[in-house]
UniProtKB/TrEMBL annotation:
The chain crosses the membrane at residues 21-37. The gene is LOC108565965. It is found in: Golgi apparatus membrane. It is a single-pass type II membrane protein. The keyword Transferase applies. Pfam families: Sulfotransfer_2 (PF03567). SUPFAM superfamilies: P-loop containing nucleoside triphosphate hydrolases. This is Heparan sulfate 2-O-sulfotransferase pipe. Keywords: Glycoprotein, Golgi apparatus, Membrane, Signal-anchor, Transferase, Transmembrane, Transmembrane helix. Belongs to the sulfotransferase 3 family.
Length: 384
């Protein structure tokens, strides 16, 4: 029995230094688990906001489905602020400098690589008027016979060099994919753009290219352009979707070259690379998100113009000072730029069919909307 007791004493006789080491490892492990759990909790909160942004940040809840002056824009922005602040510490601790890429710009040139059918024509008119008020140069791309949005590297370099050659301050506007000036050894400009609900946008594009006045304008500019097939002109969007027409199938991974893939707005942020061409893919989505986060000062949202103008006026004041006043009191009341009266209503059932194939586009749109709302929250604007 005594031999057995001696055995156990020898078996569990742990040196003092070893005991200290075990205690240190236990404390370190506990600390790591605490930090990791806290990090996971933070990420879960962020994911909840991203997965349910409309429940938290719906512009319809904030501005009664209309961002016009009749609903008092300042009250809409205040309502937005209250909802964002109630979302938790993640929004109230934001600071404007953390979300403002304007400070990264190396030249006082605004580059608006406008997405089609997101209100960019009206936005361009706004910039033209602001150029006279805020004293900056206004430049836009000429109308082209074939509009190519993805450029070869040498053409990207030419574009970047041309934009960088303008006297500052200036703005340049063109339908083109995101072009990284720094890749060509040129100073980075101030990037801005707009986005729109992707399904509403693709419907708008569908009827825009079939509008009679669109072909009249094209025919005047380029007389030798042939007129389209009347059957194609008369084809409505609902029939196009239900019949499985290639124009309205929107298949994952599909690529369309030539004039440019106007089905999706994320391509205008993804860039010119081949990886940006497949439709509705994770890789193209992540590239587009990264470009917005790293380069764009502001990406506005057509459905929430009050927040868009408030953020632009505060984050890019050199160019957008007075934007809200000019838009609501001048442009919106009297201007009918690109308002297509030939676009019939499309049922929600058809829109739901299209949404199933636009999952990445919808995610990108929600991502841009969330970023805009975070930029607004970071301003911590007063009640008045």
């Amino acid at each position: 029995m005594r031999n057995m007791e001696n055995f156990f004493k020898r078996r569990f006789n742990v040196p003092k230094r070893t005991s200290e080491l075990i205690a240190l490892v236990a404390i370190s492990t506990t600390l790591f688990l605490f930090l990791h759990t806290r990090d996971l909790n933070t990420r879960l909160k962020e994911m909840e906001v991203r997965l349910h942004p409309d429940e938290l940040l719906s512009s319809n809840q904030l501005i009664s489905g209309d961002s016009g002056p009749a609903h008092h824009p300042s009250s809409g922005v205040r309502a937005m602020m209250k909802i964002l602040q109630s979302a938790g510490e993640v929004t109230t601790t934001l600071q404007p400098f953390q979300l403002n890429n304007t400070r990264k710009a190396m030249q006082e040139v605004l580059f608006f690589n406008r997405v089609p059918k997101v209100g960019s024509q009206t936005f361009m008119e706004l910039l033209r008027r602001l150029s006279m008020i805020n004293k900056f140069g206004f430049h836009q791309d000429r109308v082209q016979r074939v509009e190519t949005i993805r450029l070869a590297p040498e053409d990207q370099a030419v574009l970047a060099a041309m934009v960088s050659s303008y006297d500052t301050p200036s703005v340049y506007i063109k339908h083109v994919c995101f072009t990284n000036f720094s890749e060509f050894g040129l100073p980075e400009p101030i990037y801005v753009n707009l986005v729109r609900d992707p399904v509403e946008r693709v419907i708008s594009w569908y009827y825009y290219v079939r509008a009679p006045w669109y072909y009249v304008e094209r025919k005047i500019a380029f007389p030798d352009i042939p007129l389209p097939d009347p059957k194609w002109l008369k084809k409505d969007f609902e029939t196009c979707v239900l019949s499985g027409d290639r124009e309205c199938r929107y298949m994952k991974g599909e690529t369309r070259e030539g004039i440019g893939d106007h089905r999706r707005q994320s391509m205008f942020f993804c860039g010119h690379e081949e990886a940006c061409t497949p439709f509705n893919t994770e890789g193209a989505l992540q590239r587009a998100k990264r470009a917005v986060e790293q380069h764009y000062s502001v990406v506005g949202v057509l459905e929430d113009l009050n927040s868009t103008f408030t953020v632009l006026e505060n984050y890019v004041p050199r160019f957008f000072k007075g934007a809200k006043d000019v838009y609501w009191n001048e442009i919106n009341q009297y201007n009918t730029i690109n308002r297509n009266l030939f676009k019939p209503p499309v049922s929600e059932e058809i829109k739901d069919i299209v949404r199933k194939n636009f999952t990445k586009e919808i995610e990108f749109y929600q991502f841009c909307k969330q970023r805009l709302h975070n930029q607004l929250a970071a301003l911590k604007l007063p009640e008045q």
